Amino acid sequence: MTKRVYLFREGNATMRDLLGGKGANLAEMSNIGLPVPAGFTVTTEVCTEYYEGGEKLPEGLMDEVRAAVADVEKDMGKKFGDPNNALLLSVRSGSRFSMPGMMDTVLNLGLNAETLAGLEKSSGSSRFVWDSNRRFIMMFSDVVLGVSKHKFEALFGELKKRKGVTQDTDLTAEDLKEASNEFLALVQKERGVGFPSDPWEQLELATEAVFQSWNTDRAKVYRKKERIPDEFGTAVNIQAMVYGNLGDDCGTGVAFTRDPSTGENLLYGEYLMNAQGEDVVAGVRTPVPISQLETQNKAVYDEFVAVCHKLEGHYKDMQDLEFTIEKGRLFMLQCRSGKRTGPAAVNLAVDMVEEGLITKEEAIVRVEAAHLDQLLHPRIDTNYVAENSIKPVTKGLAASPGAAVGKAVFDSDTAQRLANAGEKVLLVREETNPDDVHGMLAAQGILTARGGKTSHAAVVARGFGIPCVAGCESISVDYATRSFDVNGVTVSEGDVISVNGSTGEVFVQELPLIAADVSGSFGTLMGWCDEARTLGVRTNADNPRDSRQALDFGAEGIGLCRTEHMFFEPDRLPVVRDMILAKSDAQRDAALQKLLGVQEDDFAGIFEAMDGKPVTIRLIDPPLHEFLPSHADLLKEVVELRVAVNLTGGEATKALLEEKETMLKTVEGMHEFNPMMGLRGVRLSIILPGLVAMQTRAIMQAACKLQKRGVTVLPEIMIPLVGHVNELKNVQTQLEAVAKAVQEETGVEVAYKFGTMIEIPRAALTADEIAEYAEFFSFGTNDLTQMCFGYSRDDAEGKFLQEYVEQKILPRNPFETIDADGVGELMRIGVEKGRKQRKGLKCGICGEHGGDPESIFLCHKLGLDYVSCSPFRVPIARLAAAQAAIADKS
Amino acid sequence: MTKRVYLFREGNATMRDLLGGKGANLAEMSNIGLPVPAGFTVTTEVCTEYYEGGEKLPEGLMDEVRAAVADVEKDMGKKFGDPNNALLLSVRSGSRFSMPGMMDTVLNLGLNAETLAGLEKSSGSSRFVWDSNRRFIMMFSDVVLGVSKHKFEALFGELKKRKGVTQDTDLTAEDLKEASNEFLALVQKERGVGFPSDPWEQLELATEAVFQSWNTDRAKVYRKKERIPDEFGTAVNIQAMVYGNLGDDCGTGVAFTRDPSTGENLLYGEYLMNAQGEDVVAGVRTPVPISQLETQNKAVYDEFVAVCHKLEGHYKDMQDLEFTIEKGRLFMLQCRSGKRTGPAAVNLAVDMVEEGLITKEEAIVRVEAAHLDQLLHPRIDTNYVAENSIKPVTKGLAASPGAAVGKAVFDSDTAQRLANAGEKVLLVREETNPDDVHGMLAAQGILTARGGKTSHAAVVARGFGIPCVAGCESISVDYATRSFDVNGVTVSEGDVISVNGSTGEVFVQELPLIAADVSGSFGTLMGWCDEARTLGVRTNADNPRDSRQALDFGAEGIGLCRTEHMFFEPDRLPVVRDMILAKSDAQRDAALQKLLGVQEDDFAGIFEAMDGKPVTIRLIDPPLHEFLPSHADLLKEVVELRVAVNLTGGEATKALLEEKETMLKTVEGMHEFNPMMGLRGVRLSIILPGLVAMQTRAIMQAACKLQKRGVTVLPEIMIPLVGHVNELKNVQTQLEAVAKAVQEETGVEVAYKFGTMIEIPRAALTADEIAEYAEFFSFGTNDLTQMCFGYSRDDAEGKFLQEYVEQKILPRNPFETIDADGVGELMRIGVEKGRKQRKGLKCGICGEHGGDPESIFLCHKLGLDYVSCSPFRVPIARLAAAQAAIADKS
Questions:
Q1: Is A779 helix (H, G, I), strand (E, B) or coil?
Q2: E strands of A220-305, at which residues?
C-alpha cells in the first residue's frame, strides 16, 4: 500500500511534489536540527485520490493519521483530546508551488469543553484559552462548516462596542468566553446542528476541508494565472500548535532573510507580540519591524538570525520564514524560497554569485521573465513632479515597486469590468483578501488603508509585479459612497490617482510615467545572459524612438518594422485614401509620390538609429479597406441622409449623400468575408505593384542617402504572406529592379536583402522552393497560428479560446505561447527545408511570441538565428535565450 | 544549329510537340502513302523563339523556308512566284493540341498580278482565278494586315446586290475581278500602302501572322479553358494549294471516320462541290452529307472510304479528316483524332475493344472525365411534353447532345453578363465565330440559324459538352430588335426557350429537364472501371433523392451528409432561430426537441436508401449567425424605423423597432471578423453541446429504428474542424454516451463509428494524436486549402485568384484541383501519421475535389480508401480512379 502520511522526520526538501512545499521544508528544517513543532504531512497524492474517488477521503487514511498523531503526542508529551493534557493541532494546506492565502488553514484544533477546562488549568491563562477558542470556532466554522467569518467578525465587533473597548487585547477572559458562546449559538442557528466537539471528527473534517479548498474559484483563478496544473493537488500539514499569544513573552512573525523588495542583504520582516500568525498576515494589526526584536528579546533575536544564516546557506537562496515565540522559545513554522520583486531577484542573483553561493548560470536560471518585466516597469516622472511642485497627498507603505496611474475603483468586480473595457484602474481597498485577486490582476496598481508589507495585498502585488501602496492609514475608505477621504480631499470612484509603489507616495492627480532605467545588477546579469545565449535578439519597432529604446535594452537589430503603422498617422491617412480611391493611374501615382517622401523620412530615421545593425522592413500587409471608413458607419449615414433628402431635399444634403454613397459603394466593393485571408500581403503587391515599388524605393533612397553620410545601413526587405514561391519570385523580381535602379541613380551600394515571412502553412511546407528566392525567413507565428489552427484571433479570443483553456482542451492560449506540436512542427519543417535549399539561411521569428519565454525556448530548440519582440521584452528575450542555452547544455 | 523546318517526309505522328498536331499528322499521312499535297512545317520552337526574341522571326529562318519551298516546287512541278507556272501555298497554324478555329490561316498565297495572269492561262478558268484572288486578298488583309474581313464581306454583299445575284457562284469572272479591285482599293484606303505583291514577302508576313495569332485574346481564353500552356506555341504548316473550287469536278469536305455524336461506326461528314474548305467550316453555305459523294463520284468516294479505313487502323482511333477533290483527284489535307461527344467517346471506346482494336485499359484511359460529364447531361422530360401535347416550334440540326433551357440572348457579351449574374441563357446567333466563345461557354445551350454539324458552333459546343441546335434555317434572327421569328412566333430577348441538342428540336417555352439515363456502353465501361480501380467512390448527399441518384451512378456509400443544409429548409429555420436566440436552457431544449424529430426523419430516409452502405454524417459545421438575418439588412431597417418612430411615433412601429433592435444586437454580438475561422464546427459542439447531442441522438434513433426493420445501417458520425485531439476527445466522449444510451433504450445494436474531418492544418500535422480517438479520417480539402494557402475562398476567387492563375502565379485554382505540393503534403502527413497510430485507418476525401480527376489521381497516390463527390460526378470519379490505377501500374 502506498504510504499516505509522512512524519516530518521521514521527509526532506526534495519531496516537494509529494509533500508540498511547506511539508517538504518543515521536514527539511526538522532534519537539519531547527526548532520545528512536531507534525506530519498527508501527501498530495491523497488529494488526487480524494477527487478521483468522488470527493471522499480514502479508506484507512484516518488510521494512518491516528498513528502519526500518536507519534506527535509522544514527541510533545501531550495527548490529542486529553482533558488534562490536551495536544492542539494546526491543519494547513501546502501544494507544490506556493499559493499564498489561497487555501485554508485551521488552528487550535482539538478544543472542546473538556480540553478547554484542562488547558485553562494547565496554562494558567483563562484569557489565552478563551481567545484561542473563539478563534478556533470562527476559523473552523468558516473553513469547514461554511459559516462566513464575516458574521463572526460582526458579532465580535458588537461585543467590543458593548464592552467599550477598541483593541482585542482589552477584552477579558470573560468577554472572550461570551464571544465563544455567541459564536457557538451562531453556528447552531446557521447550520441547525451543534459544533462538533469530538477532536477526531474535527481533524477529519478539517483535513477534508483543506482538500476542498484546492478547488475554490479563487484558487483556480490563481493557478490559471500562475499556470499551476489543477491535478497537482495540495498536501495537508498537521502539526502541534505553539502559541504566540500566551502572554507578552510570546509573539509571532514573518521574515525574509534578505529584503524581498530590493534584494539588500538585510533581515527583513515584522512581528507582533502576544498574537497568532494570522494577525500579522491578515494585516488586522500593524506589526513592528523585526529589528525591534533585538531590543525586546536579544536571545531569541540572535537565535533567529542564526537560523536565517543556516537556512540561506542550506538552500542557497533567500528564504521566507514564519516563526512563533512561545514563552521565550523560538519555533520555526515555515520556510520557503521567498517571493521577490524584479529588482530584488536580479540583485539577489548577482550578489549571490559574487558571494560565491551560486554560479552565473544558476543566477540566470533563477531570475524569471516576470522579474525582469517588473524591473522594466514605468516610474513617475520626478522632473515633472518637481517642476510643477506636486506633493503627494499622503504616504503609505512601499509594498510593491513601480508606479501606476488610473481611475480609483473600490471593488474587484468593477475593477475587472472597467479593465476589460480598456480603462486603467487603481484598486482602492480597506484591505484585500483572496477574493480580490481578479480585481488586483486587472488593476494598474493597488492602494490599501490597512496591512503591512507582508499583508495579502503586498504579497500578491509583488508576486504579480503590480505596484502597490499598502497600510496607508491616513485614507478612510467609504464603500457606500464609493470614495475615500485623505487629508481633507475626497476622491470619488472614477477620479484619476497615481501611486508610487517604490516610495509609498499617493497623488490625487494623473502623473506622467517614464520607463525604468536599468543598470547595475541588471546590466551585469544581462551581460552574463549575452555570454550564455546563442539566439540573437532583435526588436519590433516602427519608429526611431522605439528603435532607440530597444537598443538601450540590448536589441541587436530590428526584426520587424511594420510599414502600415506609418500609413495610419493622421497626416498620411488622407493620402493613403487618395491612393486607394484613385480613378486613374495618374491619380494613384500622384498619391504614391507623396507617400514616397514621407516613407523615405520614416526609414531614414530608423536606419540612423540602428546604424550598423540589420533592419527588417515588412512591406505593406493589411487589406486596403482597413484604411477606409467602416461599412456599418457609412451605411447608417447613407440611410439617414436618404431620409433627410426625401424630407427636405436640400442641395448640400444631396451632394453629401452622393459622396457618401460613392464611398459606401467602394467600401462594399472591397468588402471581404474573411479579410484575414483575403487581399493582403504579397497578394496586394501583385494586384497593385506600384505601392510596394514605392516602399522599396523609399527604403533604398533612405539607405543610399544615409550610407553616403557614413551610416552603415543593412536593410532586409521582407515580403509578407507568401504561400507559393511564384508570389515571391514575381514581386521580388520587380523590387530587385527598383533596388538596383536606386543604387544606380545614387551611385551608392547598399548591402540589402530580400526575404519573406513564413506565416502561411503552405510556405512552411514548401520552404525549399521558397528559399530559392528568399535570402532570409522570418516566422510570422501569429498568422501561422491562426492558419494552423484555423482560428481567427480576433474572434477566437472573445468567443471560445478562454473556454478552451479553462476546459483544458488547449493547454494554453496558442497566441501567447507557440503551440509546439502544430505550429512548431510547421516551423521545424520550414527551417529544415529552407536550409536544405539554402545553406545557413537566416531564420528568425517576429510574431508576438518572440517575447514569450517558453516560445523562445522552442525557437532555440528549432535552431532559429534570432527572435524579435517589442522593446520592453528585449531583456526578457535575452534572459530566456540564455536559459534555453543553459537548459540545452544539461 | 537547331533544325527549324521539317519537310513532311522528315516528320511523323510522334513529333506532335515539335510539329504541332496538324504537321505531325500530315507527315504521318505522307509517309504511309496517302495523297497529301507537298509541304513542310516550321516548328513550334520557332514560335517560342519568335516571342522570346521580342516578336521577330529568327534570323536565317526564311533561308530554311526558301530551301523547303524549293523542295515543294520540285515535288509539285511548279514554282513559287513563277508567272507562268505559279505554285500557290497555304499557310496554316498547328499547335500540339487542336484549337479549332482559334488561329489564323491564309490560303492562295503567291497570287499577284503576274501569277494571276499566268494561272488564268494555265487553269483555263478566269472565274476560278479571280475567285481565288478575291478570297486571298480578303484573308491576307484580315489576318496579316489587320483589315477586318467584315469590311470585305460588306463590299462583296453590295457587289452581289448590284449584280442582282444571291449566290457567290452566280458571279462571273468579271464580277470577281471587280471585287478584287475594290478589295485592293479598300486595303490602300485602310492601310495607306498597297497590298504586298512579292510572294516571298507575302509568305514571310503570313508566317509571322500565324505566330501572332497564337496570342489573340480568343486563343488565350480557349487555352485557359482547355488548360493548354501558353508556352507550347504553334507550328506553321506551309503546303502546296489544291483546289476544290476549280469547277464541278472539284470539291472539299470534312469527315469523321465514325459518327462523332453517337460513336456509330458510319462515315460521317459533309462536303461542298466547287468550294474551298472554309466554305464548309464557316457554315456560310450548308453542305451536303458525305454519303451523297458516292452517287456524285463513286471512284473518289471509294478511295476516300479506303483512306478512312487505313487511317483508323493506323491510329486505332476515330479520325477527323479534311479533304479536297481537285479535278477528280482526292487530296488529304488533315487528319487528327476526332473530337467526340460523351456518348460517342464511350460507345467508340467500348466498340473498339469489342472490335479488338484496343484493350479495356486503353478504352478506360481514352474516355475523358468531360465525356462522362456530358453523357450525364439532363434531357427534356418527354412525358411532360407528351402529356401537355407540346410540339417543337421548329427543328434544326442535332449538333451537340443534351437539352438546355434558358432566356434567349443574341450576343455573347450579354450572354456572359447575364450568366455571371446567375441567369440561365441560351445563345441565339445567325452563326457563331471564334469571337463568340466566351458567350458560348456562358450559355446553357446554343441555337444557330446557319451552319452544319461541323460548323463552328457545332464543333465548339460538342467540345465543351454544351447542347447545340445548329443550322436551324427556319428561324430568322434580327439583331437590331434582339428577337427572332420562327413559324409566325416572335421570340424576344429574355423569353425562355428550350432546345434539344440530341434531336434538333426547338421549343418556345420552358420545359422540365430530367437526368440522362446511363446504360449500354456506359455500363460496360463503368464495369471495366470498377474492375480496374482500387479507390472507393462515395457520394455527397444530404437527402434520400440525391442518395438514390448517386446509387444509380454507382456510389458505394455516402462520404458526406451535411446536416446544416437540413436546417435551412423553410419549415425548420424558425425552430433553429428559436434555438439560437433561446433565453433559457428550457427554451433551447424545447427547440432542440423539435429539431430532434425532423432530423431523425431526415436520417431515416437516407439510411433506408443506402441500405448496407456506409453513411458518413457530419455534425453541424457553419457558424450559427448564418441562420440569422444579415447585419446590413437589419441595420438598414433599424435606422429607417428609428426615423419613422421619430416622425410619426406609432406604437406598432415602436414595437417593431424594438424587435429589430434586439435582433440587431444579437447579430452584432455574434458578429465575427473572419467567420470561416471563428465559432463553428467542433468549437460549436464544445460551447453548445446540446446541439450535437441532439444530432447524435437523431442519427442513432433513426439507425436503431431501421435496423429493427431489417435495414443494415452503417452510420459514421463525423466531427468537423478538429484541430487538437482534445476537441475530438471531449466531444466524442460525450456523444459516445448518447449513442450508447440510445442503443440501450431501443435494445438495438448498430455498427456506428466516430471519426473526424481533417481540414485544419494542425489536424494533419498531429494526425497520430487524433487517430487515437478517430475511427476514420475524411479530408475536407476545401477548408484545408483555405487554411494551407491562407485564402478565404469567398474572397480569393473574386479578388485575386483569377489574376493569379492568369499571371501563372498558381498553375491552377487550388479550389478546383488539389494543390499537390502544399495541401497534398498535409494529406500525406495526415495519412501517414494517422495510419501509424491506427493500422488501416480508413481515409477518405469529401471536399469538392473528390470529383476532380486530377485530384482523384492524387488521392489514389496518397493511398486514400475512397473519394466522395456529388452524385453526378460519381461516374467520373469511378473513371478517374480506374485511370489512376492503370497509370500506377505502368
A1: strand
A2: 234-240, 251-256, 268-273, 288-289
Query: Cell digits for B714?
Result: 452503417
pTM of the model: 0.77
State the CB neighbour count (10 A cutoff) for residue A698. 25
Q: State which amino acid sits at residue A249.
A: D
Within B793-852, residue ranges assigned H as helices are: 793-799, 801-806, 823-837
From A784, which residue of chain B is nearest by alpha-carbon distance? B790
Rounded Cα gap, residues B378 and B358, in angstroms:
30
Q: Which helix (H) or strand (E) holds B172?
A: none
Torsion of CA B442, B447, B451, B455, to 10 degrees: 30
Q: How far apart are CA A876 and CA A648, in angstroms?
A: 63
- Residue A539 C-alpha, separation from nearest chain B C-alpha, in angstroms: 26
Contact assignment for B635 to A632 by CB distance below 8 Å = yes
With DSSP H G I counted as helix, E B as strand and the rest as coil, what are the percentages for chain B, rounded to 5?
Answer: 50, 15, 30
User: Cβ A762–B788 below 8 Å, yes or no?
Assistant: yes
Asked whether residue A511 carries a pLDDT value surpassing 60, the answer given is: yes
Helix, strand, coil % over all residues of chain A, rounded to 5: 50, 15, 30
pLDDT(A463) > 60:
no
pLDDT tens column, A273-318: 888 777 776 666 778 899 999 999 999 999 999 999 999 999 999 9
* Contact assessment for residue B707 and residue B714, using Cβ atoms and an 8 Å cutoff: no
Give B1's pLDDT tier (boundaries 50, 70, 90).
low
Q: Which residues pair with B757 in a beta bridge?
A: B778
DSSP per position, B330-388: EEEEEEEEPP--HHHHHHHHHHHHHTTSS-HHHHHHHS-HHHHHHHT--EE-HHHHHHT
Give the pLDDT mean for B763-782.
Answer: 97
Q: Which residue's C-alpha cell is 504579497?
A: A459
Catalytic pick among B456, B625, B849, B860: B456
**A777 grid coordinates:** 525567413
Helices (H), A679-822: 682-687, 689-708, 725-746, 761-765, 767-771, 781-789, 793-799, 801-806
Rg for chain A, CA atoms, rounded: 33
Q: How many Å lie between the alpha carbon of B445 and the closest alpha carbon of chain A?
A: 32
Please name the residue ranges forming H helices in A32-90.
44-52, 61-76
Residues B155-197 pLDDT 10s? 999 999 999 988 787 899 999 999 999 999 999 999 988 999 9
Percent of chain A with pLDDT strictly greater than 70: 98
Kindly give, in sequence order, each residue whose CB lies less than 8 Å from that of residue B726, ignoring residues fewer than 6 positions away: A808, A809, A810
- Closest C-alpha to B429, from B211, B262, B283, B264: B283
A670, A685, A782, A787, best to mutate vs chain B, most B CBs in 10 Å? A787
- Give the Cβ contact number of residue A645 at 10 Å: 16
The predicted-structure confidence for A46-87, as pLDDT tens digits, reads as follows 999 999 999 999 999 999 999 999 999 999 999 999 999 999
C-alpha cell recorded at residue A115? 480540553
Paired strand residues for A329: A326
Question: Annotated catalytic residue: which of B846, B859, B860, B869?
Answer: B846
Closest CB to A677 among B687, B792, B803: B792
Nearest to A634 by CA among A661, A601, A611, A672: A661
Among A856, A777, A788, A844, which Cα is nearest to A816's? A856
Residue for cell digits 483563478? Answer: A221
Residues in A touching B765 (Cβ below 8 Å): 788, 821-822, 825-826
Average pLDDT over residues B432-452: 86
Per-residue pLDDT for B597 more than 80?
A: yes
Query: Is the per-residue pLDDT at A211 higher than 90?
Result: yes
